[in-house]
Amino acid sequence: MGERVCAVIVTYNRKELLRECLQAVLSQTRPPDHVLVVDNASTDGTPEMLREEFPQVEVLRLPENQGGAGGFHEGMKRAYEQGFDWLWLMDDDTLPSPRALEVLLLEGRALFRGSFVVAREDEGRTAFPYPLKEGNFSSAVEEIERGYPDGRIEGFLHLFPGTLIHRAIVEKVGLPLKALFLWGDEMEYRLRAQKKAVDMETLTRAVVYHPFDRQSIKRIRFGKRTVQLPFHKDPCRHFLILRNQVYFYHKYLGSSRLALRLLLYALFFPSRLGLLFKAILAAYRLSGTNSHPLERKEG
What we know:
Elements: E1 5-11, H1 15-26, E2 34-39, H2 46-53, E3 58-61, H3 67-81, E4 86-91, E5 95-96, H4 100-107, E6 112-119, E7 125-131, E8 137-140, H5 141-147, E9 152-154, E10 163-166, H6 167-173, H7 185-195, E11 201-210, E12 216-222, E13 225-231, H8 235-253, H9 255-268, H10 273-287
Parallel strand pairs: 1-2, 1-4, 2-3, 6-11
Antiparallel strand pairs: 4-10, 5-11, 6-10, 7-8, 9-11, 12-13
Helix pairs in contact: 8-9, 8-10
């Protein structure tokens, strides 16, 4: 018997997008062995739609909205405990191309494999930037594919749109940190995996479609170096971005890089200094309480 794959899809109040996503997942040339939808307490008729149109899909309905971080935490935990070998992770706004899972399984080498995330609004662009070999980043599909003619970007991936993760990685790295809720939980998980020397890759022939990154970016140039500061017009979402960035910069990237980032935020977003201060306090409170269940302790 071959290795078994569970697709884990997190949704919240977007039943039309979820319907499209499920249709694409169930129509794969190599379909997953099981599909688990984690419903973050949707109120738009999602449960009814799932019962009527997708009775073959398992639904894990959470009692309250726990954000993307909580949704993937609970979904990955359920699929892991059910014994699946591979977990194929995505939000409800991810639309996998017909061969995406087949390519991930057949062409991947690492146990942590990323799909190539192309923008739904423009198939010539990626939804998120990818690194080029000379150290720059690009969102131009042709340029990225030209830079990686073997179809493999080693050491990098974007979570969670179409990520394929082996259960051995869950054992080693743990589960997403629920407390991050939204905006940055995917970066924290990738940094945590990198800290544990987990091999990862993106396969450019495993295409999934996803909306452009909804964060706005302010780019600041220092000679040849560019610093990107994400922000959001909604103060609540901007708070989550700030808090979660302070958390993972402090935990994984170093105090000097964090200090520079905080200084730049203060200079370029002076109207939100109060929000920045609250985010810093919340991030340091968070750093003293986090845990990653299933994570294997080293040493």
